[in-house]
Design brief:
Elements lengths: L2 H11 L12 H10 L5 H11 L6 H4 L4 H8 L5 H19 L7 H4 L7 H12 L8 H9 L8 H11 L5 H14 L18 H6 L1
Helix pairs in contact: 1-11, 2-3, 2-8, 5-6, 9-10, 9-11
């Protein structure tokens, strides 16, 4: 099994892969990614469409109380924690970075409520940085394909960075996400119709 072969096939399958989250600015992306934890992008897009009509900057967001923000984002789940994270990150952006979302991974990680995955996504998507964000799709698909073997997102990220060329990190992140949505689903992976099945240890185990 060749990592390069897997990457070439994923690129062929999803040449135009991009985030499903809808956003216009780095700040909107940051908020959307925070909301996307254990929530579908489709649901997040419905919520942010309403939220961003009035609160699309950190200055506007911090005028909301946590309880007010919770009402907007309730349907995304874990709304109390997410509201607290969004407001804390917004205050940090205002107080530490002059109202602009920082463009480096290291500075993004200093924002309250912003973890490794969120920082990776914003760094890669909003600022063109080289990063692999390991969400549930990336974690599942990369392990099934034998690209990674660890049991935590952080360690899987380290493994993927070792086997995927740096200039393909961000693209591979989206390829793996889309393959996880379209084919290599959590409960019922479509191994029979997967064009990667000859290279996939998981498919081999299903035979």
């Amino acid at each position: 099994m060749s990592t390069n072969e897997i990457l070439r096939e994923l690129n062929r399958l999803y040449p135009d892969a991009k985030p499903a989250l809808q956003f216009k600015t780095p700040y909107e992306l940051l908020v959307a990614v925070i909301l996307s934890a254990q929530c579908t992008d489709e649901r997040v897009n419905k919520v942010t469409k309403v939220l961003f009509e009035h609160y699309d900057t950190p200055e506007k967001m911090v005028t909301l109380s946590r309880e007010q923000l919770e009402k907007y984002i309730f349907s995304c789940g874990f709304y109390r924690n997410k509201a607290a994270h969004i407001l804390s990150a917004s205050r940090d952006i205002l107080e530490k970075f002059g109202g602009e979302v920082p463009s480096s991974f290291e500075e993004l990680r200093t924002l309250a409520g912003v973890g490794q995955k969120t920082a990776n996504v914003v760094y890669a998507v909003a600022f063109g940085g080289d990063a692999i964000a390991v969400d549930t799709h990336v974690f599942r698909v990369s392990r099934r394909l034998g690209l990674a073997f660890s049991n935590t997102p952080e360690k899987v990220e380290e493994e993927l960075k070792k086997v995927i060329p740096r200039d393909e990190w961000s693209k591979a992140h989206h390829w793996l996400i889309w393959h996880g949505r379209k084919v290599c689903r959590s409960q019922k992976p479509d191994c029979e119709n997967c064009t990667l099945k000859k290279m996939c240890p998981h498919c081999a185990d299903q035979v």
